[in-house]
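Dear Dr. K.,

Following up on our conversation at the group meeting, I've run the structure prediction for Acetyltransferase from Bifidobacterium criceti. I'm pasting the input sequence below exactly as I used it, so you can double-check it against your construct before we proceed with anything downstream. Let me know if the numbering doesn't match what you have in your notebook.
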Amino acid sequence: MPNTVTIQQDTLTPELFLQLYTSVGWDAPGIDQVRAALAHSTATFTAYTGDEAVGMVRLIGDGGMSFYIKDFAVVPTAQSQGVGQALLCELERCVRSRIGSGWAVSLELISSQHAVGFYERHGFEARPNAWDGPGMFKMVRA
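The predicted structure tokens came back this morning:
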């Protein structure tokens, strides 16, 4: 029987962020940069199986028209076990709780190549498509 996944909101520490971030092979930013990012996030979510942290995601946004999913990471040994789905479900619940009745908001992200299918199964549309161009980004360095 698979482990039960529990989600905690707004308990993600910079140290745990870095542990989960690097577990998926991403190059880590400095801890001061992580601390600033966490302090300015709309919400953070951490997934646990038992007492082991196995995933995280940050939500950023303007609270009115647009929210953005950032730093969505599930440790490789916990992937394909419902952790990502539990994180996404809790994140969407949070978005719905923050918007006005009748509002529709844009929930956006940039996917890694291997995660496109996961997001499509959860209602996200790949870009480009018939009505929109590709997602884009630019890194700005000091």
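Two things stood out to me. The first helix runs from residue 14 to 23. The chain has one domain: 5-121.

Best regards,
J.T.
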